[in-house]
Structures are given as C-alpha cells and as structure tokens.
Amino acid sequence: MMRATRRTVLAIGLAAPFVARAQAQPRAVPLGGSIPMTGAAAETGLNVLHGYQAAVKRIEEMGGIQAGGQTYRFELRLVDDASDPSRAVTLIQRQVDEQVPLFLGSFGSNIVLPTCAITERARRPMVQAGGGSDQIFTQGRRYVFGVFPRATRQFETTTNFFKSLDPKPQTFAILYTNDPFSRFSAEGARTSLTGAGFQVTDFVQLPAVVTDVTTVLARIRETRPDVLIATTHDEHSLLITRQMISSDTNVKLAYFGLGPQTAAYRQAIGRYADSILTASYWASNAPYQCPYFGSAKGFEEYYNRNFQRPLAYHMASGAACILAFAEALKAAGGPDAAKMRDALAAMDFLCFYGRIKFTPQGDGDAELMGPLVAQVQGGRLEIVGPPAAATARPIWPAPPWNQRG
C-alpha cells in the first residue's frame, strides 16, 4: 500500500513497466505544484494528493501515454505548502524558474488564487481540484482550469434537491467565512435559493479564522430556520457542528459544503453526523465508463487495492486532473505548454469522474460537473440527489441531536 509522505518535497517517478529494448523508455513530463500535506488544510489536501498519485500510478501501469510518436509518463513534483499561501507562492515561483512546464493546484482558493497568478504570467497550464473562488475564473486568466464549477454556480443542484422535498423547507440561514471561496459560495447559495422562492432569514459572515460561533448559534435558535447552510472549509464545519451539538442548536437539516465528505469529520462527530448534508462531486456507483479505470466503480476498486487512506470524492477529483492532462497531452502531440492549454480549453472527455468539459473561463461546466447532494446515513455518505443518482432516500426532517444514533 502507498502512503502519502509529509516531507517538504514529494517527487514521484514510479518505475516504468517493461518495455522491449528496441523501444524508447517513456519520457518524463514533470507536473509541479504545491499541496497542503501539513497545516489546517492537510486532511483534504492529502486526499487530493492521493488522487494525483493513483492516476499517475495507473498511467504508468498502462505503459504511459502515446502522443506525437513518443511515449510519456508523468512525474509528480509536489511540495508541501503547509496550508500557507505565502509559502506556496515562494515554492511555485521557484518551480516556474526551474522551467517546470505543467502544474497541479493546491487545496483552498486562498492558495490557488496567488499561485495560479504566477503560473498564468509564465503561461504554464494549471489543472486543479482545490480552488472554486469566482476570482480564479473571472479575471481573464487563460491557463488555469478547475474540475469544479466556480463557487457561485455550485449550488444549483442542491437548490433543486430542496425543491424536491415534501414538505418543502421554507427558511434558510447561511453562514460563511471571510475568504473568497466561502463568500462566493454563500452568495451563490443565496441567489439560487431566493431565485427558487425560498426565504434566507440570516446571511452571516464569520471571520476568516473561526474560533467561536456561540453568538451566531444563539441567533439561529431565535429565528429557527428550517435549514442551516454553512459554506465553510473542513475545520470550520467541524467547529460549527460541535458547537451546535453542545448548545443544542437544532434545525430540520444542516448542510456543510466541506467537511462531512471526509472520514475524519464523520469519525470526530460520531453518531451526531447522521442526517447532515454535504456536496459530493463523484460517487463510485455513477454510470461512467473510463479508458483508464474502466468505470467509476473501477476507480474505487483500484484505489482501495493500492492505498490505505479512506476514499473520498477529493481523490477522484485529483485523479481527474491527471487524466485531463493525459488527454491534453495526446491532443497536443507532446508537452508543449501553449498547445496543451488549447487542448484543455477544447476538452470534452468522458471518464470515471464524469464528463470533463471546461467553460471558456476555465471552470467546470456547471451542468456537467456540478455536485451531487450527499447525506450521512449510518456513518456512510449516501447520494440523495438528484433522483437519477440517488443511493438512498433523504432523511427529512433530521432528528434532534439528542435522538441521533
């Protein structure tokens, strides 16, 4: 089994499979970038990293990528940014100066934003699964691509889920932190919900670093919204959930944009996690076919055979970034940065992750790459929306905290 290392530099060049002597060995194409292997975002950052590793390993096992009469393999040159944007900027600039041609993204818009500015100036393509802020995609950049829709377009499928409930919820409270991704996600959720006729009773900005939400939760107990939406990152979602439990702040449904997808969150909350909603950009039972892994289920089986870290959709998203680069390499005929950028912009590729197609601004097509709605049931994530992808019926309304488990 492979485990992610927490060393500062991670360079993965897996041994190439046997090739006849007369045939040239695959040529290594470096994929640079940083990822949070330590620090506040490490839990999800390591998930994305494992997805990168899984796809690189699989491509090696398949004998590499044929492009322009040459065989290529990918070599990961990822550095630990320790969840620190300033550190990430320094490390990425160093890799640009070292002529690394292609880049994978970090996790968190606060890191992807400044680092993609560096790769943009250098005209080096970046494909990433960790930054959804609208600012990444609305400032005229041409070399950064994301396998998620931008933040303000990510809530449409969730709004449709709420519309499908019987009886429909009426009132919503939205909490967000003062950072680009969380803020844009909250604004997108409010626009989507109000456009569908729902009432947003509270729209509350929290500090960028949250340590206490007791005052906000007192307000929630007063206004008694049907649904609490928190467009927060993992660590803040965990804190809010714990303080909701300890203060007996009950709502009919709670939705956290990030957090419940991870085994660490569900283990930390235990039985109280049941009924909590979240977003999931991929499910192993999705009906997708793939030339690399066979199917969505095939990716799950391959990952579990080779890695010990519990599988979450972040691994699938990370692997999708690698496959996007692989298909772009084929279309470009080689690792020319400008040609690969054009190939990414024109991509329309079906794989285990779904259909990968980017908007002209570089984010994932909202209709094709928007999230599924997942709910924790019995400690597991079940897909509850849209109906065509559902693996379970939603628990609605959720029982109060003292009746869970």
CATH architecture of the largest domain: 3-Layer(aba) Sandwich
Q: What is the percentage of strand-forming residues? A: 15-25%
CATH class of the largest domain: Alpha Beta
Describe the main β-sheet briefly: 7 strands, mixed
Count of β-strands: 18
CATH third-tier fold name of the largest domain: Rossmann fold
- Which value, in Å, is the CA radius of gyration? 21 Å
Percent range of helical residues: 25-40%
Tell me the name of the CATH homologous superfamily of the largest domain: Response regulator
Pfam families: Peripla_BP_6
Protein name: Leucine-binding protein domain-containing protein
InterPro entries: BCAA_transport, Leu-bd, Peripla_BP_I
Signal peptide: 1-22
Structure description:
This is Leucine-binding protein domain-containing protein. It comes from Caldovatus sediminis. Keywords: Amino-acid transport, Signal, Transport. Belongs to the leucine-binding protein family. Pfam families: Peripla_BP_6 (PF13458). It is a single chain. This protein is of the alpha/beta class and about 400 residues long. The protein folds into two domains: about 10-150 and about 285-370, Rossmann fold; about 155-280 and about 370-405, Rossmann fold (3-Layer(aba) Sandwich), CATH 3.40.50. Helix content is about 35%, strand content about 20%. The protein is built from 13 helices and 18 strands. The strands form five sheets. Strands 1, 2, 3, 4, 5, 6 and 7 form a seven-stranded mixed sheet that branches. Strands 9-8-10-11 form a four-stranded parallel sheet, with helices on both faces. A three-stranded antiparallel sheet has the order 12-17-18. Helix 1 (about 40-60) crosses helix 11 (about 315-330), helix 2 (about 85-95) packs parallel to helix 3 (about 110-120) and helix 11 crosses helix 12 (about 335-345). It is globular. The protein starts with 8 loop residues before the first strand and ends in a 20-residue tail after the last strand. Mean pLDDT is about 95; it is low at about 1-10 and about 10-20.
